[in-house]
């Protein structure tokens, strides 16, 4: 009996012990981690305004449309800011996801691109249909995203930039016309009127990008301080860009607002310039022989002027035209940087074939191989007819663009320091994506490959939603580092690498 009672006592102790352990396990399992408290640090995100161009607006696939605007990097930033006291972020939305627009019922803006497999090879083509956005229907209210597609640095300070009835500098901008507070206001005035507590600025891309997109067909306006004389494809003088950005920052920080500014990525590395190979022309043996025969006199004339010492042996080799049977022949182009020999022989125009150092623009893919004269089957563009300047960015033109870009970036970084705001090195970010890809949490990489890399949209210039997410995170990192905030950023995998139809 005593043994039995002792056993009961032991079992009782065991029962109590097990009960205590069970309670402890249950308590451990039900304890939730402390919620993260997001703070703005020394910044104030309550009223955020974003200034810039198409990259700020969320332009993608060659158009501005609702989904793209929602996936803009400023809208992603605004979502982060909301975790730390940020307020509403109003966007001047287009009417639909087509992206096209009319003015007085007449189409003036095209629809966004989609991939078409109609020819067997995937090519970007505009969506069919007519967009419902009518430019003359001016939106009411104020907008936090004042990114204006097409804007150069000085456009943000240009009175009447959205006035379609009067054009003070360049062409009036239909995107700004939709949400400008008045016909003669400036983008900066509308931004400043909101008394932002925090702002972002990304501007200057178009001051050199227009030149690049036009294959260097514009003019480098270095030394010309009058932007009213610039063409759409010209490179802006660095002092014009510097003065414009300085004026914007002076205005936006006047009431004590904090902000963030980004420098400019290398525009010569975008898919718009790298998607088309330098040697895209296939020829059969008979055609190659025919074309070589047609260029025999030109090549012979070059040899004669080289013998006279008018050009070097290197330039003779550079300018000699030669095709062969195969799928990878280089295109014939006009290169204004070659020695002008037309005074010696009018037939010796500045022609040569492209090399791996040249960039054929994306739009050349649908032009090379077409007929310059429909009645002449031999007038093949890029073969018998040289491509004009607008279709190719030569090494000399690349150097001109990169020189301007470097000067702009030096100014931007200096102004970030002067106004004591956060700085995003977008140039280094995109260099890294181009050289080695951007790693994602699932082990994949975002690259700059056209159509498949996930970083750029189908226009080859503007980021995809996933590309904009990477940009948003770069801004978040710079803001956290500068102001002591702890914003979490976004997950690029939550955003598509390419819009589907």
UniProtKB/TrEMBL annotation:
Signal peptide (UniProt feature, chain positions): 1-20
UniProt KW keywords: Signal
Highest taxon of source: Bacteria
Statement: the UniProt record of this protein carries the keyword Zinc-finger: no
Stored InterPro entries: SGNH_hydro_sf
Protein name per UniProt: G-D-S-L family lipolytic protein
Gene source species: Croceitalea rosinachiae
């Amino acid at each position: 009996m005593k043994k039995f009672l002792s056993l009961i006592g032991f079992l009782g102790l065991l029962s109590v012990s097990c009960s205590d352990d069970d309670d402890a396990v249950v308590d451990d399992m039900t304890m939730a981690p402390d919620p993260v408290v997001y703070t703005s640090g020394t910044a104030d995100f309550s009223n955020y305004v974003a200034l810039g161009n198409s990259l700020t607006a969320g332009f993608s696939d060659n158009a501005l449309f609702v989904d793209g605007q929602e996936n803009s990097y400023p809208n992603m930033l605004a979502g982060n800011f909301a975790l730390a006291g940020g307020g509403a972020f109003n966007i001047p939305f287009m009417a639909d996801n087509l992206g096209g627009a009319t003015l007085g019922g007449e189409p003036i803006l095209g629809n966004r691109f989609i991939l078409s497999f109609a020819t067997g090879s995937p090519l970007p083509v505009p969506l069919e249909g007519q967009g419902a956005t009518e430019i003359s229907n001016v939106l009411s209210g104020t907008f936090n995203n004042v990114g204006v597609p097409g804007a150069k640095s000085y456009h943000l300070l240009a009175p009447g930039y959205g006035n379609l009835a009067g054009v003070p500098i360049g062409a009036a901008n239909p995107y700004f016309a939709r949400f400008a507070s008045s016909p003669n206001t400036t983008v900066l005035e509308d931004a400043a009127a909101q008394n932002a507590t925090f702002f972002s600025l990304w501007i200057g891309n178009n001051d050199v990008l227009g030149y690049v997109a036009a294959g260097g067909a514009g003019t480098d306006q270095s030394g010309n301080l009058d932007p009213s004389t610039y063409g759409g494809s010209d490179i802006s003088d660095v002092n014009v860009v510097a003065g414009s950005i300085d004026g914007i920052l002076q205005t936006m920080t006047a009431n004590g607002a904090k902000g963030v500014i980004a420098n400019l990525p290398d525009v010569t590395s975008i898919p718009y310039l790298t998607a088309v190979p330098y040697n895209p022309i296939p020829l059969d043996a008979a055609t190659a022989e025919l074309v070589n025969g047609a260029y025999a006199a030109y090549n012979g004339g070059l040899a004669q002027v080289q013998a006279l010492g008018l050009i070097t042996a290197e330039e003779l080799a550079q300018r000699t035209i030669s095709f062969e049977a195969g799928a990878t022949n280089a295109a014939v182009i006009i290169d204004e940087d070659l020695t002008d020999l037309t005074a010696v022989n009018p037939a010796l125009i500045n022609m040569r074939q492209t090399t791996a150092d040249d960039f054929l623009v994306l739009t050349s893919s649908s032009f090379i191989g077409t007929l310059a004269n429909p009645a002449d089957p031999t007038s093949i563009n890029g073969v018998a007819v040289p491509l004009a300047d607008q279709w190719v960015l030569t090494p000399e033109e690349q150097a001109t663009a990169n020189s301007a870009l470097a000067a702009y970036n030096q100014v931007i970084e200096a102004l970030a320091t002067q106004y004591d705001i956060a700085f995003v090195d977008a140039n280094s970010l995109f260099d890294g994506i181009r050289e080695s890809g951007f790693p994602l949490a699932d082990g994949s990489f975002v690259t700059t490959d056209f159509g498949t890399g996930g970083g750029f949209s189908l226009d080859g210039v503007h980021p995809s939603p996933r590309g904009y997410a990477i940009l948003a995170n770069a801004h978040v990192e710079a803001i956290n580092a500068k102001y002591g905030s702890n914003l979490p950023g976004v997950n690029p995998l939550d955003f598509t690498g390419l819009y589907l139809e």
